[in-house]
Amino acid sequence: MGLQKEKTIVNTPAETVIGWLIIFLSFLVMSLGFNNGEIHIMFWVGVSLIPFGIIFVVIGKQKKGVPKM
């Protein structure tokens, strides 16, 4: 008896993946801007990346809900 494995392909929109990467990498950028208790410009660059990541995730989630013709 041959059991066949079902392959489930999940197509995640690229915008969602890019958004999550921006969010996770923004914390790395923020840590580079925090030195000896002082906050430098790199910290604020990391903070400003978070809204961009959230916007990309929302756009990607909306694309996933659109039916294909």
Could you explain the architecture of this structure?
The protein is mainly alpha-helical. Helix content is 62%, strand content 6%. The protein has two helices and two strands. The protein has helices at residues 14-32, 41-64, and strands spanning 34-35, 38-39. A two-stranded antiparallel ribbon has the order 1-2. Helix 1 (14-32) packs antiparallel against helix 2. The chain is elongated, with a radius of gyration of 19 Å. The termini are far apart.
Overall SS class: mainly alpha
Strand order of the largest sheet: 1-2
CA-to-CA gap between the ends?
38 Å
Radius of gyration: 19 Å
Average per-residue pLDDT, rounded, comes to 83
Compressed to H and E, one letter per element, the order equals: HEEH
Poorly predicted segments: none
Beta-strand residue percentage: 5-15%
Q: What count of helical segments does DSSP give?
A: 2
Number of strands: 2
The major β-sheet equals: 2 strands, antiparallel
Rough outline: elongated
Helix content: 55-70%
